[in-house]
Amino acid sequence: MRRFWLIGLIGACAAVARAEPIDLSGYVAGEVRIFPAEPKFPAQHENTFSPSLALQPELRWKLDEENTLTLIPFGRIDVDDDERTHWDIREANWLYNAGDWDLRVGLGKVFWGVAESRHLVDIVNQTDLVESLDEEDKLGQPMVNLNVITGFGTWSAFVLPYFRERTFAGPEGRPGLPLRVAEDLAVFESGDEERHIDFALRWQERVGNFDIGLSHFHGTGREPRLVPTLVPGGPVFVPHYDQIDQTGLDVQATFDAWLLKLEAIRREGQGEPFFAATAGFEYTLYQVFESSADLGLIAEYHHDGRDDFAPFTIFNNDVMVGARLALNDQDDTSLLGGAIVDVETQTTFATVEFATRIAEGWKLEVEGRFLPYVANGTLESNFERDHALEIRVLRYF
Amino acid sequence: MQKTIAAALLALALPALAHAETPEQKGLAIAVESQKRNTGWVDSKVDAKMILENKQGEKSERNMRLRALEVVSDTDGDKSLTYFLSPADVQGTALLSFTHFKTPDDQWLFLPALKRVKRIASANKSGSFVGSEFAFEDLLAQEVERFTYKYLREEPCPTDEAKGLVCFVSERFPAYENSGYTRQVSWVDKKDYQVRKLEFFDRKAEHSKTLLFTGYRQYQGKFWRSHTLVMENHQTGKKTTLSLGNFELNAKVDQTEFDPDALARLR
User: Fold this and answer.
1) pTM summary value
2) Would you say B182 and B200 are in contact if contact means Cβ atoms under 8 Å apart?
């Protein structure tokens, strides 16, 4: 792992040495998470106000028309959770852009998929789960990635020579699990452990109003099974990483104000082979209430056919409904509200997100997370007292 | 754009100028001539700065890099790529648009934080572009096929720069769906066939906005480009100034830049 970071760092240093203009951007963010309720587990911190500070500089250096170097480190200092105090290299890569093909080598990030509330197909990057439960924060993934734009779609091939373990909150962190996740004891199905070389291939094409993606991944599954294990010092969750094959399909049909979405996967290697799918729509009403605001209505259904030998998911049979209000004002103010309801247990996970620009280069984000109803014995019941309001001020540079 | 049709229309329209010509025919002929004088630039690069100003005079700024690809077809209009340099929190965001005359446009948005390319609904013609007084439809290439026309009169051109020139004044009516306008009135000078002023009439047929085009300069001995576009909203008192600079025409832009699958390598 460290070798990959080093290659990226050396590349970036070489870039600095050449004294060409380097584009520096990024942000620093101060955050307070407010937990109104007492924690569920005794080890968890009892502070109502839990502050942290995050920094993400982004350095880009365009050597010439074809070659670009990128370096994006990330770090967070969290007052209450030692595991959330962490750092990562989100990107450290060299991009060679030849027009109808390009090659990216180093730590990189890609996104696959079309849905909003679950990213089933998106598998290349590991989730930085300690950052946020929404699974949208990702760790930098060592890769050699070739993309070829052809008359018959775009082909993307990935060789992924090193595996990144998922991050979890520490025992004192919130929201958290009843046992510590012992990342240092991780068990791998492959004897190569995190050095197992994974492969991925993706084809994407547009046919009229349809954007279609087909992908296959072969290697270490990004989702661990958390196995309760007794070790000296007490019981912990040991993450088990299996070898999997996952085929994914994502389709979006765009008709006027309608976006119709489907993501589906078939996965082998964790219990019986299973299918999972997310299907939904996004419908936008423009200039609502005689204003310049747009209101987007979102609904998605989640099905997941995995058995008990696969990692646990909350999305086995769930409905998500949400609405996004974009004011289209000078400050790019937006408000997003949504709830994911389990059809079988009625367990409900609700979020509200507000964002606006408070001054040139300054942004305010407020995020609320609520569990209005939680059934006993569900994964969510671990978080039943972790209602939280997060207030973040970001300074972009 | 539609060279053969344009030529045929001109062949019909020019002799008709001497004879009885309906206001509709004359309005169309003016638009066709404008477009004819702006055909053959192939592709372009330009830097754009938008200054948004509210009633109280508070300003905010957006900087963009624009790329456009001229498309010559009976069914499709130009392709354009807008890459945001500021405000800092949206830096790296990109918007790719393919315009069509008979079917809805295609639009993709690149969100750099997630590295996500998202195809977005194109029905949003009348919405504000990044909080400015420009609607999306105001910034699309103004191809002949997008409107129907009606010539009104001739009068001296309205901007100082075009003082001494005579302008054709015509109405044009959006022929595409989801427009926020019932009609627009255009002032096009008789010498170079360049738009000097546009008045916009909203869905209630009220005069809502006025756009002035100034700072015209000619490129490659042929193509005229306005460098300052000032849009005033009469209903809100807000104003947006769009300044364009570093024009390059026939700029040899790599065509794959206009492929949605290439958006992710912009950052």
Assistant:
1) 0.91
2) no
